[in-house]
Amino acid sequence: MKKSLNAWTVEGSLGMEDMFRAVSRAGFDGIELNVDRPGAAHGLSMETTEEDYAAIRSYSETYSLPVVSISTSLSGGMSGHPEQWEDYRRLLRKQIEAAKALGAKGILTVPGGMDGATSLKAARETSIAFYKTMKDEIAESGIAVGLENVWNGFFLSPFDMTTMLDEIDSPAIGAYFDAGNMLAFSTSEYWAEILAGRIVCVHVKDYLRNGGINSGGTFVDITHGSANWEAIVPALKKGGFDGYLTGEVGKSDPAMSWDDYYAKVAGEIGTIISYG
Questions:
Q1: Other Cβ atoms within 10 Å of 215 Cβ, number
Q2: Contact in structure between 29 and 4 (CB atoms under 8 Å)
Q3: Packed helices 50-62 and 16-25: angle between N→C axes, nearest 10 degrees
Q4: Paired sense of beta strands 173-178 and 199-204, if any
């Protein structure tokens, strides 16, 4: 396995080239970029051009830091409402475009979209229907699409993910496994075991429970929480995943320099990789 860092973890004002330089210098093997709203200093957007991709490819080559995946802040509840499907299609296509242009293998999407007018049942049905409309296009792209487990109340069990993936029925659509997002209510290594063979990409973060499951808690630095990395990483590897572990975390110590923080996260991910 290798170390990667999501661009959201990087100091927000840092420009694209400076970000590649800093993340490479910290010892990471790859970086995950994000499709965000226009204006982010080191973000992609729906307006990103081929000229922009060319510049990013040059930074990636110069600093020996491949772009390994493409996430987004714009897919919260993707496919929850059929009337929004065209917007979601454009977003997925932009992520696939970015992945192909930058050499990334996978992208992140978030299904769900429950609200006062949309039940869990309806959100699930429309999510499955949406991905089915895209699955041929996704397969033809050669880019793997990962559905992420986030705090939106949609995936509360790994079986929720496996049955949904079975119904979508596409080898190009799998799970984007966030190893910290279920810690409040479940056990990460069990998810890794049950999702074996379906995991496209992995986010790493940690969460410290206030006691046992469903007792509350807070997100903390990797290796400082309740995640049993000595079980999670071997479970991932046993299930066939041997790719990048991408840190998606935030700096909590204002006194620590950003460069020291990046190096700290790289060291933490290096520690958990050693358990595999």
A1: 10
A2: yes
A3: 30
A4: parallel
d(CA 153, CA 70): 23
- Whether the model clears a pTM of 0.85, i.e. scores above it, the answer is yes
Range 104-124 average pLDDT: 92
Residue type for position 204: V
99 close to 73: Cβ distance less than 8 angstroms: no
Q: Give the chain's length.
A: 276
Q: What is the pLDDT of residue 168?
A: 98
Question: Which sign does the torsion angle of CA 250, 199, 245, 145 carry?
Answer: negative
DSSP, collapsed to helix, strand or coil, labels residue 27 as coil
Q: DSSP code of 210?
A: S
User: How large is the average pLDDT for residues 109-124?
Assistant: 90
Contacts of 156 (CB under 8 A, 6+ apart): 185, 186
Spatial separation of the C-alpha atoms in residues 276 and 72, rounded to whole Å: 29
Instruction: Dump strand ranges (E) for the chain.
Output: 2-6, 30-35, 67-72, 106-109, 144-148, 173-178, 199-204, 206-209, 217-220, 244-247
**pLDDT tens digit sequence for 8-66:** 999 999 999 999 999 999 999 999 999 999 999 999 999 999 999 999 999 999 999 99
